Amino acid sequence: MQQLKLWWQDFLDNQFNPRYQALEQREQRLLSLTAVFVAVMVLVFVIILPIQDQRQEMQVYTSEMFKQASEAAHLAELLKQGGKAKTSTNLMADVDRLAREKKVRQFMKRIRPQPGADGKKTLLIQMKDAPYASVVSFMSALTEYGLSMPQVKLQAADSAGSVHVQMTISGV
């Protein structure tokens, strides 16, 4: 550190000051203004703009997280209430209809009837790369329709905002 300080002092005394003093007063002012301008530009582009960009990204991320938390709380409340039971005889048709309404049907890779406990009709559904918001909306619609989901597994997909889903849906 001491060597750097000595080198800098030597540079200023032996190289910079003699050249600066040799310039006309107009050129000295121009050089000073240019140095201030360059310093301000470095401050703006190296410090201020990256901090501002990161702040904006964090705001978007935080708002998305609050939105997802709100949807999850709404879904949990619907699950607690048990939904409004509607009578239907065809579980697969009801689930397919609700999936098409909530635009998750194209992400369903497997819909398989399962033997259910207590004589209930049960379906195993697997979705790949489904949008999280659409999946939550679909699960909410299932609950409102009176269907239960005894097993739900969500796994983050490679693309942002997408999930892989495996769930069991039981009817009445």
Please describe what this structure looks like:
With 172 residues, this protein is an alpha+beta fold. The chain folds into two domains: 62 residues, no CATH class; 88 residues, Alpha-Beta Plaits, CATH 3.30.70. Helices cover 59% and strands 22% of the residues. It is built from four helices and four strands; from the N terminus they run αααββαββ. The chain has a four-stranded antiparallel β-sheet with strand order 1-2-4-3. The mean pLDDT is 86.
Q: Classify the beta-strand content into a percent band.
A: 15-25%
Mean pLDDT: 86
Main-sheet strand order equals: 1-2-4-3
- Identify the overall geometry: rod-shaped
For the largest beta-sheet, the strand count, sense and barrel status come to:
4 strands, antiparallel
Q: In terms of per-residue confidence, which ranges show pLDDT below 50 for 5 or more consecutive residues?
A: none
CATH fold name of the largest domain, please? Alpha-Beta Plaits
> What structural category arises from helix and sheet content?
alpha+beta
The first-level CATH class name of the largest domain: Alpha Beta
Helix content: 55-70%
Rounded to the nearest angstrom, the radius of gyration is 32 Å
